[in-house]
Amino acid sequence: MSAKVELPMKEVFSVPVGTVARMPVRPILDCLKAKAASELNEKEKTIPEELEMIRTWIKQSGHIRGRMDDQFLLGFLRACKHSLERVKEKLDTYYTIRSVLPEVMRKRDPLDPFLRKVIRMGVSVPLPKTVKPDDPKIMLIRADAFDGDVCDFPDILKVFTMIGDILLRDDDQMVICGQAAIIDFGHSSSGHLFNFNLSFLRKASILNQQGSPLRQKGFHFINTPKGFDLVLNIFKGLMTEKNRNRTIISHGSSLESLHKYFPKSILPTELGGELGPVQQFVDEWEQRLIDNRAYLVEEELLGVDESKRRNTNPLAEEKDLFGTAGTFRKLEFD
């Protein structure tokens, strides 16, 4: 197990919109440059101008309190294939949906004793390797690591978003090439998969699809339980049309089938791989979240103030989630 370094607790993070420290854009590998150019319409010489246009739009929007640094905004440009209009829509959705999910987006301190228990479960674990440096990164989701006696699904999603925030900031391969999810049910029964509030699941799906700049490249299910077809139908029903058209494969209990897509060299021992046990990656990510505590807690100050909105709320038609279009005005971001 990796050593844990506990940082001193701080009570207040003050980050007024427009003053977030700007970090320079990192150089990337040539293979990532080529993929960004061919698949994401990226032109290096136009990036500074595009970033400035986005910053200007955020400031003029009035209702968004968001990050202004180049690396963060470049993630949205890449996710939207450098379409400025799509960037505006995704950024607005990103901060709007986060503002109405306080059970997920508040109390994100990785040193909080309860949250550390959730982190240590290791339900969501990014795997470190891919076959090629421009392959999609791999996110392992372990359904049987979820202990419903310790926490609820929103707590699991909270840790998932914390990991996602760090990946968005730090992992150019993830941002440019996307991610493939391996969802391992292990020894979990199908019963506890239905202990979720569908309204919350719908909000979570918006958060992780329309509101996330991290692009999905496929879903692979392994060790699926009895009755999984029903679970998969619910899962597909929550997907955007684009994600429903991605690779979605159920491998049953066949590791041989999984290895046709993911060779043993990039998988942990639990999936018949050669990387060693998953726990080492859980430990590494626990420490990484602690090391980035200030950044994660700072995120709580970012979001939207609906009383200052000048444009149409991007989720106004989601009446099944929020009652009526007008209810957003009661959910001001304090």
From TrEMBL:
Domain of life from the UniProt record: Eukaryota
Species in which this protein is naturally found: Anopheles darlingi
Molecular-function GO terms, alphabetical: phosphatidylinositol bisphosphate binding
Protein name in UniProt: SEC14
Pfam families: CRAL_TRIO
Domain CRAL-TRIO per the UniProt entry, residue ranges: 111-279
InterPro entries hit by this protein: CRAL-TRIO_dom, CRAL-TRIO_dom_sf, CRAL/TRIO_N_dom, CRAL/TRIO_N_dom_sf
PANTHER family assigned: ALPHA-TOCOPHEROL TRANSFER PROTEIN-RELATED (PTHR10174), CRAL-TRIO DOMAIN-CONTAINING PROTEIN-RELATED (PTHR10174:SF216)
Any single GO CC term annotated in Swiss-Prot or TrEMBL for this entry: membrane
